[in-house]
Amino acid sequence: MHIGEVIDRQLKLSSLTKKELADRLGVSRSHIYTILERPSIDTDLLVRISKILNYNFFNHYQSLVPGGISASPEELTATIRQMREKISYLEEINDLLREKAGRKRE
């Protein structure tokens, strides 16, 4: 699945132009073309586009996930944010461990 193509099809079905979508997202029209060329997209951006076009693009991912997706886009976005925070925390711990290990070697 190419999410940019899916967004482009839905945009054509809506009453919005690419310029209007760009204005609502707070990006340039050329950035919209970049988004539409992408095979994948950041979930936060996809949530924003879903709200603007009043269309749940996450439904297109259900067939790719065993058992489907039962969470809402907002729940998925919150989960991803939590995971990113945990990754950041673990990276900090790794840095501290590397720093401590470096002192032992000196």
SSE-based structural type: mainly alpha
Oligomer: single chain
What is the average per-residue confidence, as pLDDT, rounded to a whole number?
86
What is the number of beta strands?
0
Elements, N to C (H/E): HHHHH
Alpha carbon gyration radius: 19 Å
| N→C terminal distance | 52 Å
What is the share of helical residues? 55-70%
Number of H/I helices: 5
* Binned strand content: under 5%
Assign an overall shape: elongated
- Contiguous uncertain segments of 5+ residues: none
Main beta-sheet annotation: none
Tell me what the structure shows.
The protein has 106 residues and is mostly helical. It has five helices and no strands. The mean pLDDT is 86.
